[in-house]
Amino acid sequence: MLIKEVENALNGQITIEAESSQIYLAMASWAEVKGLEGVAEFMYSQSDEERTHMLKLVKYINERGGHAKVSKLPAPPTEFGSIKEMFETLFKHEVHVSESINELVHISLQVKDYATHNFLQWYVAEQIEEEAMARTILDKINLIGDDKGGLYLFDNDIKQLTVQS
Ligand code: OFO
């Protein structure tokens, strides 16, 4: 049985994962409109992934006798500046998600909820991967600079990351 404090904190994480999914969907649409097919495909798939992160939390809370809640979300932005700015936003967002997961881990230990602590380890590992991937992408973008041909190749390249993830 989940104690209220943990249930509320996990419900808060549901909102964060749902927000991630919405933001990445908005990024996918922005990239698609700009003709960046590869980036759009990558972002659509990131958005789907975030939804699975959210669903995993829903199932866990309900399985442990709590009640998973679906909350209202603010609309994500529609403009993301440049590709570089968009991936910087994504990176910052993932760092924020990691901080939130860390806080959850901290709460679970404080109240000696070892089952939740164990459940959260999957998210800890996932965040390491997601932050690393965002960093790799940003490094590539910095290498390209203003080179249009480089951007074309990058858009093709990123499709590979979508297939792998
Ligand atoms: Fe990329 O955030 Fe979920 O966990």
From TrEMBL:
GO terms for molecular function: ferric iron binding; ferrous iron binding; identical protein binding; oxidoreductase activity. It catalyses: 4 Fe(2+) + O2 + 6 H2O = 4 iron(III) oxide-hydroxide + 12 H(+). Iron-storage protein. Residues 1-145 form the Ferritin-like diiron domain. The keyword Nucleotidyltransferase does not apply. This is Ferritin. It comes from Aureibaculum marinum. One of its GO terms (cellular component) is cytoplasm. Keywords: Cytoplasm, Iron, Iron storage, Metal-binding, Oxidoreductase. It is an enzyme of class 1 (oxidoreductase). GO terms for biological process: intracellular iron ion homeostasis; iron ion transport. Pfam families: Ferritin. It is found in: Cytoplasm. Belongs to the ferritin family. Prokaryotic subfamily.
